Amino acid sequence: MEFSTNEMRIVPLVPSQESKDVLSDILRQGAQKMLGQAIEAEVEDWLRQRAECRDERGRQQLVRNGHLPERSLVTGLGEIKVHRRPAEQREVFSSAILPRYLRKTKNMEELLPWLYLKGISTGDFSEALAALVGPDAKGLSASTITRLKAVWQDEYQAWGKRSLEGKRFVYVWADGIHFNIRLEEERQCILVLMGVTPEGDKEVIAISEGYRESEQSWLTLLLDCQARGLVTDPELAIADGALGFWKALPKVWPKTRGQRCWVHKTANVLDKMSKGQQPKAKQMIHEIWMAASRAEADSAFDLFVKTWEGKYPKATACLVKDREALLTFYDFPAEHWRHLRTTNPIESVLATVRLRTCKTKGCGTRLACETMVFKLMQSAKKGWRKLNGTSFLPEVLQGVKLVDGERSTEDAA
Q1: Listing from the earlier edge strand, what are the strands of the sheet with 8-11?
Q2: Which neighbouring-strand residues pair with 81?
Q3: Comparing 51-55, 270-274, 353-357, which segment has the lowest mean pLDDT?
Q4: Residue 189: in which H helix or E strand, if any?
Q5: Which residues pair with 5 in a beta bridge?
Q6: CA 301, CA 322: separation in Å to the nearest integer?
Q7: pLDDT score at 202
Q8: Boundaries of every domain in the chain
Q9: Has this prediction a pTM greater than 0.90?
Q10: Residue 357: what pLDDT?
Q11: How far is residue 114 CA from its own chain's centroid?
């Protein structure tokens, strides 16, 4: 009895007369050739492994037999035409490279949401797709995004209700971001809480709509996290000093210490000084938080106050009022300082969100805006690396006393 393989034959794609890009045509032809060679090798290997399957007359039972109608495979280089042989016998070959029902490669499946998330409006999709994959590519339309957004909203709402039981975060960063909503006059504020696990992995903990970053808004977010199982207080929270977050934090996580963001504080201080003096003042502030020890930082801090308090009392008062909260990071491992002195771990992600919404002039609804923040942060997460000095996180959790980022002499002994 004969068995059939599900063989595939690559059919050369004739360049469209509309296409004048010779290089793209060459690349597409090369992709077709490489795909054909890879599948041929896969088929040969599959037949070789079954070469002993013969009947009583010694004839090989597994042979190639026929083909199905041509189909198109949409890739990043455009359309590739392929033929498939039928799978009507008992043992069927299925290519791991080109699955039976594949119509678009994985990079093409990811292209649509990527374009949308990076700032291409649905109305511009036809032009963008034609430029990327050619005018004849089918199955790629702007209407796909409308369906995707509905799916994303369901994903976001399910994610916002997920259990946090058993989760623990060593450090957390908090920040708020404001958006324009096209269908509403009032701007929307989105609160974002991000943390790092004991294994050094960064995660988005919660995303929620807030009212002007108020204490009540942050309290609602933190209580929701607690209700979903996040009951262990983080060791340190990092945020901008203007947030209602600081008033809400001790009501939910009373043991969590606070670190004010130096980038925000620097901007607030310099804003109260003349532009001509700002470069010098900025350098002096930089010398405070870049000092190798708490003693050196205190010395630089005192020098700044003495230098400027006569001419700019509001600027020095702005710095002095948060002195302790600005220098908390010295009690944690030096390897972590670059992550703890600012809210950059979360700000860098939100910068992408701001850029996307500026390009598209805001989202249409509040839910769509929250969903967009969620999807962009999920996309950004793929590129996040572990926290520097991950091996020191257990010491932080154990409460090992540190002086200037290192073990104290008492603990070392």
Answers
A1: 8-11, 78-84, 71-75
A2: 11, 72
A3: 353-357
A4: strand 188-196
A5: 64
A6: 12
A7: 92
A8: 3-103, 105-159, 168-261+342-382, 264-338+385-413
A9: no
A10: 60
A11: 12
Q: CB-side exposure of 263: number of CA atoms within 13 Å? A: 15
Q: What is the pLDDT of residue 98?
A: 44
pLDDT category of residue 225 using cuts at 50, 70 and 90: very high
* Four-point Cα dihedral 47, 53, 59, 60, nearest 10: -10
Q: Quote the tokens at residue 292.
A: 């190798």
Residues in contact with 408: Cβ distance below 8 Å, sequence separation at least 6, in sequence order: 401, 402
Report how far apart the first and last C-alpha atoms of the chain are (Å, whole number).
80
pLDDT at 106 > cutoff 50: no
Size of the chain in residues: 413
Q: Which amino acid is at 53?
A: C
- On whether the CB atoms of residues 281 and 304 are closer than 8 A, the answer is yes
Confidence (pLDDT) at 101: 41
* Mean pLDDT in residue range 135-150: 63
What the block records as the tokens of 209 is: 């709509």
Which one, of 241, 207, 219, 208, lies nearest residue 381 by Cα?
207
Side-chain-side CA neighbours of 283 within 13 Å: the count stands at: 4
Cα(13)–Cα(219) distance, integer angstroms: 60
- 209: enclosing H helix or E strand: strand 202-210
Helix H or strand E segment including 260: strand 257-260
Residue with tokens 């670059």: 338
Q: CA-to-CA distance for 227 and 164, rounded, in angstroms? A: 9
d(CA 97, CA 35): 8
Identify whether the C-beta of residue 22 lies closer than 8 Å to the C-beta of residue 105: no
CA dihedral 304, 305, 308, 312 (to 10 degrees): 130
Select from 265, 296, 293 the least CA-distant residue to 281: 265
- pLDDT at residue 144 tops 70: no
C-alpha distances (whole Å) from 18 to each of 11, 15, 74, 222, 385 are 20, 8, 18, 57, 44
d(CA 198, CA 196): 7
Question: Exposed/middle/buried for 15, CB within 10 Å: 0-12, 13-18, 19+?
Answer: middle
Q: Which CATH architecture has domain 168-261+342-382?
A: 2-Layer Sandwich (3.30)
pLDDT by residue (tens digit) across 392-402?
Answer: 999 999 988 88
